[in-house]
Design a protein that fits this description.
alpha+beta; 4-stranded antiparallel beta sheet; 21% helix; globular
Length: 231
């Protein structure tokens, strides 16, 4: 005589399958902040690599150190000389560049922007004011963290100044957070060094970072070695 499943057994199996399906589906959900942080870590490491491979020392140039390879963030892209004349409020983007051809308060220029190793026709930039438009095919959408990953706010902290949204490296790969104008390494001034003396914290948030309930993830850049990782 064949035995059949009872109704209770069938319900039990359905419940178990439902639980397993939910767990499996949850494991495949995207964590966009994690993806953004992973990309940022990769690009900070690439900036460090460029700095170590392309030492900018020039005995004939007194401000040679201003040309060190840099990763710089910007919010609220504005275009007044490029078409269309739009202001992209709240848009966070970053650019990897060396300050070429002229020293200009460390503002990216097309001549100094790094190229995308996977596509030499693109710059490693999500766009920059009146230099590279976000709609230009040579700009990279993935470097506009709001457009690609929904990042609404970015905060620098720890060993980095909160109002200096860039990081650059010397030929040894040592990270720095701001630029002197007269000397390649700043002596202690107002409690700050150009060279990092404690880990730099770059926090990405899906809302205003000051809101306690916002989701966030922090990228750390260690002093001296420049080792970059997710906290």
């Amino acid at each position: 005589m064949q035995k059949a499943f009872t109704m209770i057994e069938l319900v039990f199996v359905i419940v178990i399958v439902g639980i397993l399906s939910f767990v499996a589906a949850s494991s495949f959900q995207r964590n966009v902040l994690q993806e953004a942080a992973d990309q940022l870590v990769s690009h900070i490491r690439y900036t460090q690599h460029l700095a170590m491979m392309d030492d900018k020392f020039d005995a004939n140039e007194t401000q040679w150190f201003m040309r060190r390879w840099t990763l710089r963030f910007q919010q609220n892209l504005v275009y007044t000389t490029l078409v269309p004349h739009n202001t992209y409020n709240g848009v966070w983007a970053y650019t990897i560049f060396s300050d070429l051809p002229n020293f200009s308060q460390h503002v990216p220029d097309l001549a100094g922007m790094a190229k995308n190793p996977e596509n030499p026709n693109q710059y490693l930039s999500g766009g920059y004011d009146n230099v590279l438009h976000v709609d230009d095919a040579t700009a990279m959408k993935s470097l506009r963290l709001k457009d690609k990953y929904g990042v609404e706010d970015i905060v620098f902290g720890g060993g980095c100044r909160s109002n200096v949204l860039y990081i650059h490296f010397d030929y040894l790969g040592r990270p720095m957070n701001s630029f002197p104008t007269t000397h390649p390494y700043e002596l202690p001034a107002a409690g700050w060094h150009k060279l990092l003396t404690s880990p730099c914290q770059i926090t990405l948030c899906n809302d205003d970072c000051s809101v306690a309930t916002s989701s966030r993830i922090t990228v750390l850049i260690e002093p001296e070695t420049g080792y970059t990782h997710i906290q």
